[in-house]
Amino acid sequence: MTAPTYPLYQRLPGLILAFHGCDKAIGEKLLQGKMTHLQPSKNNYDWLGGGIYFWENDPLRAWSFAEKASHKHHLTKGSIKTPFVLGAIIDLGLCLNLMDCRALDEVRYAHDILQLSYVGSEEIVPMNTGENLGARFLDRAVIEMLHTLRLQFEEKGGMHPPYDTVRSAFPEGNALYENAGFQAENHIQIAVRNHDCIKGYFRPIQE
């Protein structure tokens, strides 16, 4: 018996708050209306593919990232001189939610197609590398293949519109305590592909 797909529930309801760590000059430009949006990340190791990256409901984690990136310049394309946290109000819209079994099946299928695309090629399939597999060359390639497949289906008149956002939880860091199943840097990240999903930016209240 074929399992139902429940496509109506891929569009996540409501608005969420999310936070982006950046240089203060960039954040202030956005808040003053001198910029419309943050620039999407296009690194070939971005684990959720291309998009504007946010930490879901975690301003402290966004600040910690910006502070770390101010010393380790390889973490960001642009330099961060003064760590800054920018808040955003986001409608996730049609979301590739990687905590949903349907989305995970779709990712698995995209990986199969990616593997087939390298058959007969002298190039090799990208691999995830680094500490905790932090450089996600393979994962990015899979996610981008997934988006490409959906675009092709839509162009042929199929019912697979492009995703607006990608969302996933990531276990990261050392064990929170001895024998813990929790890790010290666990988080949820969002990559926004459709700028229209960002309804506004704001300055987080610190007190």
Describe the protein's architecture and organization.
The structure is a single chain. With 207 residues, the chain is α+β, with helices and mostly antiparallel strands. The protein has 2 domains: 15-93 and 191-198, no CATH class; 95-173, no CATH class. The protein has helices at residues 24-31, 59-69, 101-117, 137-155; strands at residues 15-23, 52-56, 83-91, 95-97, 128-129, 135-136, 165-170, 187-192, 198-202. It has a 7-stranded mixed β-sheet with strand order 4-7-8-2-1-3-9. It has a two-stranded antiparallel sheet with strand order 5-6. The N and C termini lie far apart (55 Å).
Topology pattern, helix = H, strand = E: EHEHEEHEEHEEE
Number of alpha- plus pi-helical segments:
4
Number of strands: 9
Q: For the CA atoms, what is the radius of gyration?
A: 18 Å
Main sheet attributes: strand count, strand direction, barrel closure:
7 strands, mixed
Secondary structure class reads alpha+beta
Strand order of the largest sheet: 4-7-8-2-1-3-9
Which range does the strand content fall in? 15-25%
Oligomer: single chain
Shape: globular
Number of domains: 2
Query: In which range does the helix fraction lie?
Result: 25-40%
Provide the residue-averaged pLDDT: 92
The span between the termini is 55 Å
Task: Summarize the helices and strands and which ones pair or pack.
Elements: E1 15-23, H1 24-31, E2 52-56, H2 59-69, E3 83-91, E4 95-97, H3 101-117, E5 128-129, E6 135-136, H4 137-155, E7 165-170, E8 187-192, E9 198-202
Parallel strand pairs: 4-7
Antiparallel strand pairs: 1-2, 1-3, 2-8, 3-9, 5-6, 7-8
Helix pairs in contact: 3-4
